[in-house]
Amino acid sequence: MPKSIAIIGDRFMLPSMFAEHIRTACGNGVDIRSLEQPWPDEPMEHGYAGSKLDGLKEFMGQPDEIVDFIGDAELLVTHLAPISRSMLERLPKLKFIAVSRGGPVNIDMQAARDHNVLVVNTPGRNASAVAEFTIGAILAETRLIRSGHEALRGGEWRGDLYRADRTGRELGEMTVGIVGYGAIGSRVAKLLKAFGCRILVADPYVQLSAQDRNDGVEHVALSELLGRADVITLHARVTPETTRFIGRDALARIKQGAFLINTARGPLVDYEALHDALASGHLGGAMLDTFAVEPVPADWPLLQLPNVTLTPHIAGASVRTVTVAAEQAAEEVRRFLAGEPPRNPC
């Protein structure tokens, strides 16, 4: 009998893309059914502000509807659907979950282990997209691209941005600090080398690659990075240790006029403290793609500051991200069906 696979995608991670790659990898000996969720046209739930579902983070879908759709499927491939302990208790046939994300934040991992359900993910699926976006974010701030654009949109020609006391600085003369040296942070370091800037990395859990060491990248403590960098870009995961670790104390250590870039996760930053650092002029500017609460409130104070660029959590959004994630998930499905060990177990 063909193995039953439930696919829950959305309008970014298309169910049809998952199905296409699974059939390519596994042939026709699978029974696939698909569900499309309305994200990103409708917002997901964010457990960082207090989860409504067993502590899960960043998910979409009502438990009863998800359980009814999965039914007797043995395999689930999903992007955002939540899987909690109480849901797993109602899905006795489920043995495998592929989550097309860098981290399975929408899955209760302890419950999955307790129920003998293998969970795999797709690490690095959007590393290229986020790294490229980060370089653009740095340039938008340091070269006054956002400032010039906003002025022109408002009918003002900012000739003063050419003044020596106001114009931007080139990356080649600056020091960039990368916090987090995973798939994204290490790629950011690689891209930055082309600009000739000094590169610092703070990550206590990994070592620099031999190539980065040879190229002069420095591995330093976070406190040293904060004090030396002209630009600080965040690429760490959210853990108890990193939650709001860019707070008042950390911001006070950052040199006057430096820039903060966050394309990682909103909970890494104390946004009230960041607002004060930007409003006072201690920070020269910030570029933020992620937030503790998404969507951000219309009256959010940071929206009113002139020295901050905000985007709606799109750094990882690219067509290539979809393709890479679907390919990785399909290969994990194939390996599970073939009795082979997974490449990316959680």
Description:
Belongs to the D-isomer specific 2-hydroxyacid dehydrogenase family. One of its GO terms (molecular function) is NAD binding. It comes from Bradyrhizobium macuxiense. The protein has 12 helices and 12 strands. The chain has 346 residues and is of the alpha/beta class. The protein folds into 2 domains: 140 residues, NAD(P)-binding Rossmann-like Domain (Rossmann fold, 3-Layer(aba) Sandwich), CATH 3.40.50; 185 residues, Rossmann fold (3-Layer(aba) Sandwich). The strands form 2 sheets. Strands 8-7-6-9-10-11-12 form a 7-stranded parallel sheet, with helices on both faces. Helix 1 crosses helix 12 and helix 5 crosses helix 7.
Q: What is the compact description of this entry?
A:
This protein has helices at residues 15-26, 63-70, 85-88, 109-114, 127-142, 145-153, 183-192, 210-214, 222-228, 248-253, 271-279, 319-337; strands spanning 3-9, 30-36, 75-78, 96-99, 118-121, 175-179, 198-202, 218-219, 231-234, 258-262, 283-288, 308-310.
- Provide the helix percentage: 25-40%
Per the principal axes of the C-alpha atoms, what is the gross shape?
A: elongated
- The neighbouring-strand order within the major sheet is 8-7-6-9-10-11-12
- The CATH topology annotation of the largest domain reads as Rossmann fold
SS strand fraction? 15-25%
**Top-tier CATH class of the largest domain:** Alpha Beta
Number of domain modules: 2
Q: What structural category characterises the helix and strand content?
A: alpha/beta
Task: Detail the poorly predicted runs.
Answer: none
Major β-sheet profile: 7 strands, parallel
The whole-angstrom Rg is 22 Å
CATH H-level name of the largest domain... which superfamily?
NAD(P)-binding Rossmann-like Domain
Helices, by number, come to 12
The total beta strand count reads: 12
- Overall pLDDT level: 95
CATH architecture of the largest domain: 3-Layer(aba) Sandwich
